[in-house]
Design a protein that fits this description.
Layout (H helix, E strand, L loop, with lengths): L15 E3 L3 E9 L6 E9 L2 E3 L4 E3 L3 E7 L3 H10 L3 E5 L6 E6 L5 E2 L1 H5 L18 E4 L6 E8 L12 E2 H7 L1
Parallel strand pairs: 10-12
Antiparallel strand pairs: 1-4, 1-11, 2-3, 2-10, 3-6, 4-5, 6-11, 7-8, 8-9
The structure holds zinc ion.
């Protein structure tokens, strides 16, 4: 039994909270369906309170399966990475921030994170060199429903992140 005193009357838990600065990581990828060169993104944060288990990570952490993303963040991402938007996996009811190829194919977070050698699952620090980091212009903590992964964040230096606007100029 859960301790009733800790239950929120609407939901079991509120959203998790991602700590600023927040980052977008981007890496080149090949579409498994059409073979085109594309790119895939994921979010990262400087810390995370994980509402599902009450843990707090006081460290750079890569976020996956981001659902219930605040509109403020969605608007920034949409302007820059229009193929990265909330969508559902086939047969799944939960929409999350998902990458797509120009051809419309979904590149799910499992595709890009789960297996060693996947876009965001490099097997050595050298394999991180093609990952670009962008620092989002968001100064406050953001509520977010998401999962997280530790692996790749260990090898990335957030200090090398490009400013969001500067990144635009170089694109
Ligand atoms: Zn494609």
């Amino acid at each position: 039994m859960f301790d009733a005193a800790n239950d929120n009357e609407d939901e079991e838990t509120g959203p998790s909270r991602a700590q600023p600065p927040l980052y977008v990581l981007r890496v080149p990828e090949t579409c498994p369906n059409c073979g085109s060169a594309t790119g895939v993104c994921t979010l990262a944060a400087s810390g995370l309170y994980d509402a599902s288990d009450g843990d707090f990570f006081d460290r750079f952490i890569v976020l996956t399966h981001a659902a219930e993303v605040p509109e403020q963040l969605l608007a920034l991402l949409r302007a820059r990475f229009p193929n990265w938007y909330p969508d559902r996996e086939e047969g799944s009811g939960t929409a999350y921030l998902m990458n797509h190829c120009e051809c419309g194919s979904r590149l799910t977070d499992d595709d890009i994170h789960a297996e060693p050698g996947a876009a965001f699952h490099p097997t050595s620090p050298d394999a991180c060199r093609n990952i670009s980091l962008y620092r989002l212009p968001i100064g406050e903590e953001l509520p977010l429903v998401c999962s997280w992964t530790i692996g790749v964040g260990e090898w990335l230096d957030p200090a090398r992140a490009a400013d969001w606007q500067a990144g635009d100029a170089g694109a």
